[in-house]
Amino acid sequence: MKAYVYGADGAGISDVAQPKPKGTQVLVRVRACGLNRADAGMRKGHAHGAAGGVGTVLGMEWAGEVAELGPDAKGVKVGDRIMGSGSAAFAEYTLADHGRLFHAPSNMNFEEAATLPIALATMHNAVVTVGGVQAGQSVLVQGASSGVGLMAMQIARLKGAKLVIGSSTDATRRGRLKEYGADLAVDSSDPKWVDEVLKATNGEGVDLIVDQVSGKVASQNLAATKIKGRIVNVGRLGGTHADFNFDLHAARRIDYVGVTFRTRTIEEVREIFAEVHRDIWGAVESRKLQLPIDKVYAFNDIDKAFEHMEANKHLGKIVVTV
């Protein structure tokens, strides 16, 4: 089968053996894949958790059809339209654990379905399960113009947040954040953004920050969070190291929690997917929660898709069809 593989000379489309499902695995005939920032790093040889390196089939998110079931797989049957996340997505066939997928709603095509699994799982966990958002609270999403950022704002709004703030350093994308739930859009590269947040919250700061940027905004986040507020760190788009104001952290008594899928067990991931289904799946099926598709590429043009991502001018998801 055809797959997009990281090799000794970089990433490219190669012929590899079709995988065989074992245990609770499902073999998926992939029809579309969503691109993610981690894919761009792995394409350059970087590891993502335990995954990466020469010989790795790249990709983390897909939509397609069940082609075959492992002996212990439950909840799906051959021919079902599904979407999910896992390794080796950029291929004609991939394997997925039966607890790490969703049935694709009948009102979505494969391209639309491929945009959702990672955003839904990541941001429901960050905003609701870990972040504990409650109706009437205020939420700031750092890096809001990414696909997962747009989903975070929508989930916060769905759960009754009274004020949703999104950040983007790009003026064009910042201007579109209100389409996806933001009451206020701020530029996190402008030092005055904290003052804007404080003004919007009567000087108190927000109840919750979902932070995909970290780096240089880490201490600014502390100043923009209310006393006894919460910061959930879900990424490092702004860098992995920075100064951190420990005194401000203590003074404001902020809960600062890091989350990632890279160190979670399969049992933990299954529970996250199950919680998405229990809590917000009706909003997915009604299309209340959805992501814009910036551009769709054919599989043979996957390098062009990554070039488009690295140009950093897109809003929403870039999709590759297989």
UniProtKB/TrEMBL annotation:
This is Quinone oxidoreductase. Pfam families: ADH_N, ADH_zinc_N. The keyword NADP applies. Residues 7-320 form the Enoyl reductase (ER) domain. SMART domains: PKS_ER (SM00829). SUPFAM superfamilies: GroES-like, NAD(P)-binding Rossmann-fold domains. GO terms for molecular function: oxidoreductase activity. Signal peptide: none annotated. InterPro entries: ADH-like_C (IPR013149), ADH-like_N (IPR013154), ER (IPR020843), GroES-like_sf (IPR011032), NAD(P)-bd_dom_sf (IPR036291), Zinc-ADH_QOR/CCCR (IPR051603). Gene3D superfamilies: Medium-chain alcohol dehydrogenases, catalytic domain, NAD(P)-binding Rossmann-like Domain. Keywords: NADP. It comes from the Bacteria.
